[in-house]
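REQUEST ID: PR-0412
SUBMITTED BY: lab tech R.K.
PRIORITY: routine
TASK: structure prediction, single protein chain
INPUT:
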Amino acid sequence: MKQNNFGEMIFNETDIADLLMQGHDIAQSKSILVDTTVDVDAIVKFVENFNNNLVIHKDSNDSITAWDLKNQSNWHMPHEYKQLDIAQYILDLCADEVELQRCGEELLLYQERNLFDLLRYLKYLVDVMTEHNVIWGVGRGSSVASFILYKLKVHRINSIYYKLNINEFLRK
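STATUS: complete
OUTPUT:
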């Protein structure tokens, strides 16, 4: 076994055979990444004898940017959140012109970086944590510079009040 640049475990034929023969339940994993140099078809046939619900994926030599973009489309959240017009939702939370101006500025920065799905997911995450009475911190690091994250209740630091620059979070 080895790790790729993203910390994911990459298996070859021997690794998978060893795990299966030693009785390890690889079915707990919904998918496995395999080395690009191996015969994936042979592994799939071998693994199907043990678990036909397991999905085998080839490891890719994507750049970090390509890997990130590929995974951004795979957010696990309800359909209603995936379809949410997050920009309008955030603008509707604004109480005055100052908040509208700041949110508009930040939304442009989030949009430039293709991060609207991240905002949708954070809305979903906060809703789930609130529903289940999960307590989280007041905020930390540069994320408190984002007024949008404050409006979504990801943190409790009002960056307008404290005059925090959004560029401390979303560096250009």
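NOTES: Strands lie at 2-3, 9-11, 31-34, 55-58.
REVIEWED BY: pending
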